[in-house]
# Entry
Amino acid sequence: MRASSKFLLIIALLSKIASCVLAITLDYPRADETWITKVEGSNVVGTYQISGIFHGFHYDGTGWTSLDYPGAITSIWGIEENNLVGYYRIAPSEDYHGFLYDGATWTTVDKPGASSTLITGLYSGNLAGYYIDAFGNHGFMYDGITWMTFDKPGAVDTYVNDISSNDLVGNYFETNGISHGFLYDGASWITLDKPGGTNTVIRGVDSGNTVGSYSDAHGDHGFIYDGTKWTTFDYPGATATYIYGIDGDTIVGTYHDASDFAHGFSHTIPEPMTILLFGLGVFGLRKSFWKSVCHRGQVCTI
# Structure
């Protein structure tokens, strides 16, 4: 094997090992399942399920807080400083209502004329998501005064899943039932489909980096796309991985275990220099240790 090929193989192995070390499970205490949807600094938000009932939560890095719209089944999908957004429904109704929670007051935010409103992100006070009416699903942005609808041209349904600056991201469906990811920059619709995959869904965006999931013959996988390179991320040992949010070099989402239960996770994207330094440390250890360097006792097969 040529020296250059050996070097590339070593880098690939070190990258996989670093991914194991930098990925951690975050499950709401005593929950049956946990979905982490968005991240801001050390704060993450999402939804957990106990005995079939869904609740929202906020985790600040040290403590977990359960948060429910009064009397409702609640899902939290966005965070900006003290403000949280998401949607709720009050059983037995199947209709969803958007909300904004500022840490003290729950405010319902519903698109006029819609049967359901689902808020999935916020940026600088602008709310984004999608609503449902008699004609299907439509993306929207709401600045506190004006509702703006965003339908991907030619699509039968459009879902806006996050917002950052002028960028809206999400997915749309055509008549064939296949999901395609998109980024809308205020002027142009850009389709973003993972090469070699199907059913791409863009869930999060930050500083031009998008995250989401796609499917292939081996299952469902998370990805990170920086505008040039697509990087697949599978949580170590998981049967399926879904990335929902990104903030800087941190991604969050959910993976499924062998029993198909959902667990939340946080992962720090390793920089190339981090991988190299990590590798230098690993080379100083015995080879027999290589199979047990993953975080919290997980085994990473290399």
